[in-house]
Write a structure and sequence with these properties.
Elements lengths: L4 H12 L3 H17 L14 H8 L8 H9 L12 H8 L6 E6 H7 L7 E6 H11 L3 H7 L17 E6 L34 E4 L19 E5 L6
Antiparallel strand pairs: 1-2, 1-3, 2-4, 3-5
Helix pairs in contact: 2-3
Length: 239
């Protein structure tokens, strides 16, 4: 039995009355989420997450920027500062999620060849507790970890079909240099990036700076001086 017009029309009217940024943020989460949701065993259900509501509440009402505008600006190298479209209280509350430190997973080969920073001297990080939650909920399955972190599954597997070597670096709060909400201009950004400091799966993210001596292919850097503490990690699963 179909849904009658008595139900559909009020829903459409309520959607039409929503601010444009609310509709765009919700659509962005769902659109990007569908790209990486090839499995029914995903970590987060985007239709149940409250991230779009949180972003909607934090989007400045006195700005002309819309989420789509921000993404388009990034595509042509005219990146606005997150403070141009996000409320100061929202930014502060978001960054407070990192008060206990931050962590990220690195591919071991890349880490030991290039250091923990991207070519622009930055690196994306997650609250340590959030990354641990992902690992606990996925059981360390490489496919599910990739889905949760918005990374193509293929990058987690070698030619033999087994997971590649990875490891975690934990950054102490004192090592979170220039902690900030990603603007989208960072070298580590991929096509799934959306404004507001969250992955499309609802996991909070931020960006920090790393020393130039820990960035790029160098022969004179000392891994012992890199920020962060290493932790081994073994992923499971197959391609």
């Amino acid at each position: 039995m179909g849904i009658g017009k008595e139900v559909i029309r009020p829903l459409l009217n309520s959607l039409d009355g929503m601010p444009i940024h609310v509709r765009q943020l919700s659509e962005m989460f769902r659109k990007h989420g569908r790209r990486q949701n090839d499995s029914t065993n995903r970590v987060d259900d985007l239709d149940q997450t409250d991230v779009p509501d949180a972003l909607a509440a934090g989007w400045r009402q006195d700005t002309d920027w819309t989420p789509n505008d921000v993404v388009r600006a990034n595509s042509v190298g005219e990146t606005p500062d997150p403070g141009d479209y996000l409320d100061a209280d929202y930014i502060s509350q978001h960054l407070s999620r990192f008060d206990d430190g931050a962590s990220r997973i690195y591919f071991s080969d890349s880490l030991h060849a290039n250091g923990p920073g991207q070519r622009d001297g930055s690196t994306f990080v997650f609250p340590t507790a959030e990354l641990q939650r992902v690992l606990d909920e996925t059981g360390g399955d490489a496919n599910l970890v990739a889905d949760a972190l918005g990374i193509e599954r293929k990058w987690f597997f070698g030619p033999d079909g087994n997971p590649v070597d990875v490891e975690i670096r934990h950054f102490d709060p004192s090592e979170l240099t220039n902690l900030r909400i990603p603007s989208g201009s960072e070298a580590g950004r991929n096509e799934h990036w959306i404004p507001g400091g969250y992955l499309p799966t609802g996991i909070p993210e931020a960006v920090i700076d790393v020393p130039s001596s820990a960035t790029g292919t160098r022969i004179d850097y000392n891994p012992g001086l890199w920020p962060g503490t290493a932790q081994s990690l073994t992923l499971t699963g197959s391609k």
